[in-house]
Amino acid sequence: MERKGMSRWEHAFFIGVLIAFLFASLPSLAKEKEEDKRPEREIGVHFLYPTVIISQGEEAKVDLRVVNHGKRDEDVLLEVVEAPKDWYTKITTYSYTVRGVHVPSDETRTLTFSADPEEGVGPGTYHFKVRARTKDGKLKAETDLNVIIEEVKAGKKGKEIVLTTSYPVLQGPSDATFEFSLEVENKLPKEVVLNLSAEGPKDWEINFKPGYEEKYISSLRLKSDSSRTLAIEVKPPRYAQAGEYPIKVTVGTGPHKAEATLKVILTGTYKLEAGTISGLLSVSTQKGKSAVVSLYVKNSGTATQRDISFLSFKPENWKVKFKPEKIDILKPGEIKQVEVTITPAEEALVGDYSVTLNVKGEKSTDDVELRVTVKASTVWGWVGIGIILFVIAGLSVLFVYLGRR
Question: Which domain holds residue 84?
C-alpha cells in the first residue's frame, strides 16, 4: 500500500531534530561573530612582575610574556632597549638565549628575562625596558621592569645555605686519604649554582666530589628547598708532621654563603730505617774475640718514635751488646748512632755466620743482617810456622849427621 504523507509523530520527530541542530549551532555562530571583532594584527609584551626585589649580588629572573591578539601568526623580535650600566641582560627559553619568538594567532609565549649585576653594584632601584616588534616592523610594543636591590643585613649572611656534616673531625696517618661527607641544603626560593671552595694547609690536596661518584667538581646546581650530599677528599703531603689541621669549606653564590670548619688529626707515619754507617754488611773476627759494628738508626716517618729497643738473632753462645741499650726518643728525620759489639763463642769453628740485628720502635721495625766471618787465631799460625821451622831444622841436622857417616 502506498503512503500518502508523514504521520503526526514523524512530523514531531523531524521538528525536534531541527530545533536541536539550531541550538547546537548557536555557540559556533556566536564565536564566529566574536572572532570577527578581533583586529587583523596586534601584539603585546609585558613582564609578569613589573617590580621585583633581590638581594645585593643576586641575579633577577622574571617571566616575559609575548601576546598575539591578531588573526594571523606573527614572528616577534625582542630587544632590551634600556638597561643600567654594569648589568648583563638576556632573554632565554629553556637553555637557549633568544632574540625573537613565533607566536600563533590568539596565543601567548612566555620567556625568561635575566638581569645579572656585576660585582660591586650597590643597593637601589634599576630600570629596564624591553621592546617587541614584528618582523616587518609595522607593529611595536614595550614593557618596563624595575629591579630593587636590597642591602644584605649583617648577621643574616649565609642563612639561606646550610652545611651539615656528621663527622667534622677525622684522624689517621700522614699517608692516608681522608674523605668527609657534607650535606648542602638550599633554602632559597629559587634554583642556584653554588661555588665550592676550600682553604687548607699549604701543599694539601682538597677536592669536591658528588656522593658515590669518582669525579671532581667545583660547583653544584641545587633546586629550591632541596639538598645534596658531597664528598670532600683530603690528601696531606707525605712529609706532613703529626698534629691538628683545620680546613675551611665555603659553599654559596653572591651574598648567600655558608661555611664549615673540618679538621684532620694526623697521627703521623711510623717508619724506622737502620743500617751500618760504613754500608758494609760483613765483619771478621776470631772465636772469643769481639768485633764492633757502628749502626745508625733513622726516623724516616713523620711521627716521633719513643722507647726504641734492640734485639739480636745470633748463633748459640754468641754475645751481642748494644750501646746505648735503647733510644728514649727519636724525632722525625733524626739519626742516632749505636755501637754493636759481637763476640763469637769460644768453641766457634772457622767459617761464616749470620747475625741479625732488630731495631724495634712503637709501630715500626727494621732489620740489619750481618755476615760474621770467624777466622783462625794468629797465635796458632805462628805455632804452625814454628813447627814447620822445627821440622826443617831437624831434617837438616839429620842429613848432616848421616852424611858424615
Answer: 43-150
